[in-house]
Amino acid sequence: MSRILVTGATGRLGQLIVERLVAQNRPVRILTRRPETARNLFGTTVQIAAGEFADRYSLDAAIRGVGRLLLLSPISERLAADQIAVANAAEAAGVQRIVKISGSDWTIDPPGVSISGDAHAAVEQHLRRLPIDSIFLRPNAWMQVSLANTIKHVLVGNPVTAANLDAGVGYIDARDIADVAVHLLLADRIADAATLNLTGPDVKTPRQIASLIATALGRRVAAIEKRPAIGPSDTDFEHRAVAQFATLIAAGRAAVTTDIVASILGRPPRSVEAFVSDYLAAEAALVG
Predict the structure, then answer these.
(1) Which CATH number is 84's domain given?
(2) What is the pLDDT of residue 246?
(3) Which of 22, 220, 228, 257 has a 20 to 30 Å separation from 237 between CA atoms?
(4) Exposed, middle or buried: residue 114 (CB in 10 Å: 0-12, 13-18, 19+)?
């Protein structure tokens, strides 16, 4: 197989994807602004291309000889412009397939409810116009982000807080997102321009999360409704995007499940119960 380029490789999900590709002895190149960080993470197991999304010269150098591309970048005001630049360089270089880590389905559809979702939608629309096999992964809320943060706060004595204690979330484990992404990068064929809404196996509300953590810890964990603080309108893009996520989740928009992970991987997605158990076991090992 020709080389695979991964963008966003030094982030939480990017690392998981690279590790899985390397474990399967796939030739991987990463494009990063932080080559030293990348070397510390991956050593000599991958090719490191130092560069910027906005620098077409470094993009062209990174993408030369690449057959497949994992497109991932952090939430930012430049997300759409940066990812479209990568897509255009990929088209010019003859890349055959792009797997894009997109926004959650409920941030993209309907449009106009999330600045982050709208940015991802713009990239998806651009990719659909290119002569490249593209697939869009729309992961629901990640366990490793909001759920991990909830557990961390409980461990230091705080309650579970949410704007709506009865608004469920179909949390998905980032390891399942990585497994699906790698499967689709390596598959012989995929459906053209497929859009996949990735979720965990069931929906959990903040009340249920508090009960799960309480059972695991053997002590009471309170659950309190608390509206998130609303910052000034000129708050940076990421903070505005996260505030919009909270509003949509409180309205029940993330309370969805699909069978896509199981249909692709041939096994059920990891559960919230398993994530809570794993997280607490890892914390106990650090303390011990």
Answers:
(1) 3.40.50.720
(2) 94
(3) 257
(4) buried
